[in-house]
């Protein structure tokens, strides 16, 4: 099995190589197309999916029929672990944002893996805790900051996690609609459009079809209210 460098913070990056290889070997490798749903909210199923070479979005249905974007997941992440651990229906839908490779691990195999590798079980607990902490931070942001700041924070985090360096800056080519980005920022779409326009007007970002380029990372950090490291 070829070695690979995983982005820091993802589940696979937290595992020792032998443990990681054991987990990947337990999965059935599948290729999925862009926009393909790999987990569906409400489904009564309990397998885990490891994102081997993938980018995906996590959404939930709202009462008015729209989809609210909760998070982005990338290569090295796992999804579906809650249903695997407690046997409840899926709490969200996971959709591939580009052609991807995933590994499907059945619940019994995943639970056996965690029993045999208590260090990995601790990392799963850490992943769940990190996601809860992220959700709590978002709730504080929604209550405390204007849309422009919330947008800057989301774009900064997306650029750090999923961006690639291009000639004009850091390209965030996660395929999200403005409506999806608005729900991630906790804003109305018209408010998001105004905030995007403000960042464009100052030259901090440029936008294209489902693509954002961060041209001035330090200025974006300042708008987000993050102190210089």
Radius of gyration: 18 Å
Structural class: alpha+beta
Number of helices: 8
Q: What shape does the CA trace take?
A: globular
What's the rounded overall pLDDT mean? 90
| Elements, N to C (H/E) | HEEEEEEHEEHHHEEHHEEH
Estimated share of beta-strand residues:
15-25%
Flag low-confidence runs.
none
Adjacency order of strands in the biggest sheet: 1-8-3-6
Report on the biggest sheet: 4 strands, antiparallel
In which range does the helix fraction lie?
40-55%
Count of individual beta strands: 12
State the distance separating the first and last CA atoms: 37 Å
In terms of topology, how is this protein built?
Blueprint: H1 17-25, E1 28-32, E2 37-39, E3 48-53, E4 55-61, E5 67-74, E6 78-79, H2 81-86, E7 93-96, E8 100-105, H3 107-116, H4 118-144, H5 147-162, E9 164-166, E10 169-172, H6 178-185, H7 189-201, E11 205-208, E12 211-214, H8 217-224
Antiparallel strand pairs: 1-8, 2-7, 3-6, 3-8, 4-5, 4-7, 9-10, 10-12, 11-12
Helix pairs in contact: 3-4, 5-6, 5-7, 5-8, 6-7
Brief characterization of the structure:
The chain is built from eight helices and twelve strands. With about 230 residues, the protein is α+β, with helices and mostly antiparallel strands.
Tell me what the structure shows.
The chain has 229 residues and is α+β, with helices and mostly antiparallel strands. 42% of the residues lie in helices and 24% in strands. It contains 8 helices and 12 strands. The chain has helices at 17-25, 81-86, 107-116, 118-144, 147-162, 178-185, 189-201, 217-224, and strands at residues 28-32, 37-39, 48-53, 55-61, 67-74, 78-79, 93-96, 100-105, 164-166, 169-172, 205-208, 211-214. Strands 1-8-3-6 form a 4-stranded antiparallel sheet. Helix 5 packs across helix 7 (189-201) and helix 6 (178-185) packs across helix 7. The N and C termini lie far apart (37 Å). The mean pLDDT is 90.
């Amino acid at each position: 099995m070829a070695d690979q460098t995983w982005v820091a913070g993802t589940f696979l990056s937290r595992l020792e190589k032998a443990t990681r290889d054991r987990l990947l070997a337990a999965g059935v490798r599948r290729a999925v197309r862009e926009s393909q749903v790999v987990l569906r909210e409400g489904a009564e199923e309990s397998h885990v999916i490891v994102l081997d070479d993938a980018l995906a979005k996590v959404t939930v249905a709202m009462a008015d029929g729209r989809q609210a974007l909760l998070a982005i997941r990338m290569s090295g992440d796992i999804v579906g672990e809650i249903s695997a651990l407690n046997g409840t229906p899926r709490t969200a839908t996971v959709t591939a944002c580009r052609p991807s490779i995933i590994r499907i691990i059945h619940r019994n195999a995943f639970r056996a893996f965690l029993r045999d590798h208590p260090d990995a079980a601790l990392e799963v607990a850490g992943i769940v805790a990190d996601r809860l902490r992220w959700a709590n931070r978002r709730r504080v942001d929604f209550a405390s900051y204007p849309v422009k700041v919330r947008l800057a924070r989301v774009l900064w985090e997306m650029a750090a996690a999923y961006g690639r360096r291009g000639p004009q800056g850091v390209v965030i080519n996660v395929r999200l609609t403005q409506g999806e980005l608005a729900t991630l920022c906790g804003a109305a779409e018209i408010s998001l459009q105004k905030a995007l326009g403000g960042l464009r007007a100052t030259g901090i970002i440029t936008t294209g079809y489902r693509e954002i380029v961060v041209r001035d990372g330090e200025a974006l950090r300042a708008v987000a209210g993050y102190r210089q490291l």
